[in-house]
Amino acid sequence: MEDIIDRDKKLKQEITEMFTDYFSRKDYAITPPVPLVTEDKSVLFTNATIIPWKRYVLGEAIPKEGVCMKQPCLRLHAI
């Protein structure tokens, strides 16, 4: 069972690297993920990927061509 888990983790990492490498070659800014528990007082936690993009949407930061990130998130039906 550990072999399957290790294989899946390695595959996940490879896919993630392929994804970010593709956008990096297209001159996109690769940004780090934000924590699930965020300092943003407008939300309780990072419940969707839009929270890390907020500064771009609000015009506080301007990317070169675009922005790419791998963001962990927590999705719940209801709180």
Instruction: Note the main sheet.
Output: 2 strands, parallel
How far is it from the N-terminal to the C-terminal residue, by CA? Answer: 34 Å
- Mean pLDDT across residues: 80
- The total of helices stands at 2
User: Helices and strands, in N-to-C order?
Assistant: HEHE
Q: Major sheet: order of its strands?
A: 1-2
The stretches of 5 or more residues where confidence is low (pLDDT under 50) are none
Give a nutshell description of this structure:
The protein has helices at 2-25, 50-57; strands at residues 29-30, 67-68. With 79 residues, it is mainly alpha-helical.
Descriptive report:
By secondary structure, the protein is mainly alpha-helical. Helices cover 41% and strands 5% of the residues. It has two helices and two strands; from the N terminus they run αβαβ. It has helices spanning 2-25, 50-57; strands spanning 29-30, 67-68. The protein has a two-stranded parallel ribbon. The longest helix is centred in the first third of the chain and has 24 residues, at 2-25. The radius of gyration is 15 Å and the shape is flat. The N and C termini lie far apart (34 Å).
